[in-house]
Amino acid sequence: MEEIRCPMCGNPNPDHLENCQHCQARLKPLVISSEDGPPGGTTDADSGLPDWMRSEQQDETPSEDESPPEADSEGDDWLTRLREEGDSAPVEITPPSEPAESKEPEDEDWLQRIREMRDEDVEPPEDDDSSSIFDGALPSWMTDEEPAAEKEIPAQGASIPDWISTSDKQAEKRDTSAGTDDSELPDLFSSSDEDEAPAAPSQDADTDIPDWLSTLGEGGESASPQVEPTEEELPSWFTDAQDDAAPSSAEPSLVIPEPTPEPDSELPDWLKDSAESVEPLPSVESTKEEIPDWMTTVSEEPSAEPEAEIPEWLLTVEDVEPGATPGREPADNGIPDWMSGVDDEDAEAEPEISTIPAEADPETPDWLSGLDAEELSWPADSSDAETPGEDLEPDWLEKIGEGAAPDLVPDDDGLSPFLTDDGLDESLFEIDELSDLLSEVGEDLKLPEVVEDDDGLAPAELPSWLEAMRPVESAEDDASTLDQGQIEQTGPLAGLSGVLMAEPEIARLKQTPKLTSRLQVTEAQKNHIKVFRDLLATERQAQPLLQPIVVSSQGLLRWLSAFFLILVIGLVIINESQLVPSPPLVSVPTEVLRISELIDTIASQDPVLVSFDYEPGTSGEMDAAAAAVVDHLMIRGAYLTLVSTAPTGPALAEHFIATVQAEHNYISGNQYINLGYVPGGASGLLGFVQMPQRITPLSFDGMDAWTTQPLNGIYSLADFKLVLVITDNPDTARTWIEQVQPKLQDTPLITVVSAQAEPILHPYVGGENAQVRGMVGGIIGGAAYEQVTGKPNLARIYWDALNFGLMTAIAAILIGGIVNAFSILFRSKDRREA
Amino acid sequence: MSAVNMSLADLSGLLLGFTFTISILSYIVGDNFLFRLATHIFIGAAAGYASVVTLYHVILPQLIFPFLDDGQGEMVLVVSLLIPSILLLAKISPRTSKLGNPAIAILVGIGAAAAIGGAIFGTVFPQTSATINIFESNNFINGAILFVGTLTTLLYFQFSARQEKPQRAGIAQVSKVLGWIGKAFIAVTFGALFAGVYVAALTALIERFLFLWTFVKELVLPALLG
Questions:
Q1: Which residues of A touch B107 (CB under 8 A)?
Q2: Are A731 and A824 in the same domain?
Q3: Cβ contact (<8 Å) for A805 and B196?
């Protein structure tokens, strides 16, 4: 059973495993195609060229001077020669001076050591195990393959590709013509310049060569078979194009040479498996069937295939004559310099590459057409320039590439690199898919870097002392435990197992908790809500308004009441009715009789104070009520002093004396005196009581009242024999009672009041100790007093009218009461029925 | 009374009295121009008459004439009264109304004092004494009615009964019943007042109708009938 050493831990693994069982490192490259390179690798994907091939190309430069005549004359491409040389016996490896010189002098020392190592490679290679300090750490495949890579160098040294030598010559020309300094040139160019020196430059770095590289160099004698895989890495279309350029060699170029027998021990196990699993290309015919049409067109150009079916850029390739040198123009049109460099001197052999127009055809891949001239103008003069991606490659990648060169060993079987990958076959190189593939390759130029990175970093960077301290056992344990883990599928950690799965944790879909939006309401709160809602509902409902009882007959009733009242009173007045008898004497109130008794005590010329405190509106009633009393006083011959607390009172008093009592012929200043108006209400009346002369110095008619006969000997109100207050206002009567009566001493105070004031003033009326000795109220009192005096007056005139008016009012009240009662009864009955 | 014997002033007075009386009685058909016109004339005439009366019977005899005719001692008193009276005129303008406040204060104070003193000594004490001595009169029934009426009326205006305790609630019920009796007395009193008002109004109506009839009978009918 074959074993594969892990490039990471160096432990052997069964060849059927893809990952190391100890450290889980990948034993086999992820994408072989990227290492093998696409078919167009010669043009756009030299990164697909294995590094060992690059080194070969670099190493071939010293012998370049020897081969150019062959290349120029023969026009064979270097691949053909490689095939031929592959068939021959291994040749000594020429000193690998060019790769070392291609780097900057200040580059790592290990490059110089590589050169030294290659110098040492001239010596017979030793056994793998005899090399160096990396005995235990270096994987076996590396130790096995590196000698193989070095073995092929001598083979290539014999047959240096023309384009490589051409590039070197171009570099010479540029240096001489342009005179550019090395310092101005990029490293690649400088390296190519250095390559021109055929002297063994690698000898100066023997001591700096890493041991592992020296180990590799020791086993490099068997590298010659790998030349053919290198040839197979070149796309067939490219070889076809070369064949077209050199018709003489076209026929053999299409024939895939038999793979050089190579000992199995030099191949890694996994490569052996893959090589075994892939059937070798049987023949050219079968290849033709699978290659794209355009390739067949190129290859079958002598058969005069219609040019319309051939892409333009291929047509351009076809148009180039083998012996012509048109390579400069296409190079100026954006063809990579390395391509143009190839055909500079060997344009006859490979002009087709450099004549690819920069203006891409519709069929030209986008990535190729998108590159401008400068980008495509890779260093054509240098041998390194043929790998356009190389300048883009970091140094570490180159180192890895060198170390990873054995990955391409499967090509030793003579199989097409496209067949080594299970996922790739030649059907991918259909003309429709080729552009996509190329574009992918162009975009994924760095893809091999990733693979090689994993393979080459660890052994290259680990110092020896650290390597010695490496806990292999623990790593094995860890690897065994990591076997249980899940293999990462995506990301930079793809392919590794035991990786913490961060993504599922982050991207894990969790069911969001369901949050309820309902409020937690208790029963008590619900009851409160219900009560509140009921309240609001009742508030919103309009309360039915009680329909007011519309008495439609209200106006009519008013009219009827007025009509009947006016009718009755009018009839009575017009008729001057005396139908209603005066009140009987026995029914005369005591207070009325008492007034009569008091007036009867008044002697002639006794001063009597009479107050006329009523308004003109009630003068009719008051005149009728007071007429009998005043008439009685006049009959008694009393001097009257008239006064009033109302502004209109003095005038009413004058009117009363002049009209009602006109029969007595009282003259102002003689029988009576009108003191006029006493202002100030209660206070004024109080002042009048205390200082009557001061308050009312003049009479109403302007006389000095206090010098007149009626007021003769009067200094205060108590000097009056009687005080009579005639008023329709109970307040005025009370004011007289309160303010004047206490000051009257023995002078009686009697009142003649309106019927409306009588009930209020009646409490003040009484006997001898009463505040009001007598009172006559209204028409009724006046009529009574007339009855007492036996002398009819105004009261009697109004008596019948008053009585009929009162009866009318009583009748109206009764009728209204009855109607209202019936209406209430009917309304209640209707409510009951309803 | 005949138109021939009456003076022009009396005759015009009778005509104006008749016209304004008819205008006021026109209110029976609702508010109208004649009613409003008569009302405005009465108010204006009463105000004018009051002003004239005040001027001629108050201001001139009590402020101006003493100031001009009397001696210096009287003049000083008059001036002391005249200044507050003039300050009362400052009440016309709101900006100077504060100047009349002292005079108003004196008037209100004196008036209140007079009214309160008069009410206490002229109404409260005498009425209380009369009520106490009500049974001294021979008419016991009237005295009893007055006593009951006065007591129940006062109880009716008692609204502070508490219902917290049962015994208080019983008292409140008694007070409530007595209050109802007092309410009946109050109703009778208001009825008597209304009757007096009605009688007074009816008397005024009768007086006016009598005036009209007299005017018509003695002035219009003779003029019409020749």
A1: 683
A2: no
A3: no
Are residues A633 and A771 both part of a single domain?
yes
Which of A739, A742, A778 faces B196 most closely, judged by CB atoms?
A: A778
Query: Same structural domain for residues A566 and A697?
Result: no
User: Which of A451, A468, A485 is the endpoint of a domain?
Assistant: A468
Say if A517 falls within a structural domain: no
- Measured in whole angstroms, the distance separating CA A388 from the mean position of its chain's CA atoms is 50
A contacts of B198 (beta carbons < 8 Å): 806, 809
Report how many Cβ contacts below 8 Å link chain A to chain B.
150
Q: Which residues of B touch A700 (CB under 8 A)?
A: 57
Contact A755 B199 (CB under 8 A): yes
Q: Are residues A249 and A356 in the same domain?
A: yes
> Domain check: are A559 and A447 in the same one?
no
Model confidence at A610, pLDDT cuts 50, 70, 90, reads very high
Tell me which residue of A695, A651, A620 sits closest to B49, measured CA to CA: A651
Residues A44 and A126 in one domain: yes
Using the Cβ of A816 and the Cβ atoms of chain B, whether some distance falls under 8 Å is answered with: no
pLDDT score recorded for residue A37: 43
The answer to whether residues A461 and A315 belong to one domain is yes
DSSP output for A620-682:
HHHHHHHHHHHHHHHHHTPEEEEEESSTTHHHHHHHIIIIITGGG---BTTTEEEEEE--SHH
- Distance in angstroms between the alpha carbons of the first and the last residue of chain A: 118
Kindly give, in sequence order, each residue whose CB lies less than 8 Å from that of residue A518, ignoring residues fewer than 6 positions away: none
> Given the structure tokens 């059973």, which residue do they identify?
A1
Burial (CB count within 10 angstroms: exposed 0-12, middle 13-18, buried 19+), residue A289: exposed
Q: Give residue A725's pLDDT.
A: 92
Q: Does A684 lie in the same domain as A663?
A: yes
Helix/strand/coil for B147: helix
Looking at the structure of chain A, the number of domains it has is 3
Each residue's pLDDT tens digit, A696-750:
888 888 888 888 888 888 888 888 999 999 998 889 998 998 888 888 888 899 9
* B203 closest CB neighbour out of A738, A764, A779: A779
- CATH code at A749? 3.40.50
CB contact residues (below 8 A), chain A span 593-622, against chain B: 616-621
Give the model confidence (pLDDT) of A83-99 as tens digits: 665 555 444 444 444 44
Give pLDDT tens digits for B106-120. 888 988 888 888 888
Residues in chain B closer than 8 A to A767 (CB atoms) = 137
In the block, residue with structure tokens 């009465």: B42
- Is A525 within a domain? no
B121:A573 CB<8 A: no
Cβ contacts of B118 on chain A, cutoff 8 Å: 682, 686, 735, 738-739
Structural domain of residue A820, as residue ranges?
Answer: 554-571+811-833
The pLDDT of residue A407 is: 46
Residue with the bigger pLDDT between B95 and A555: it is B95
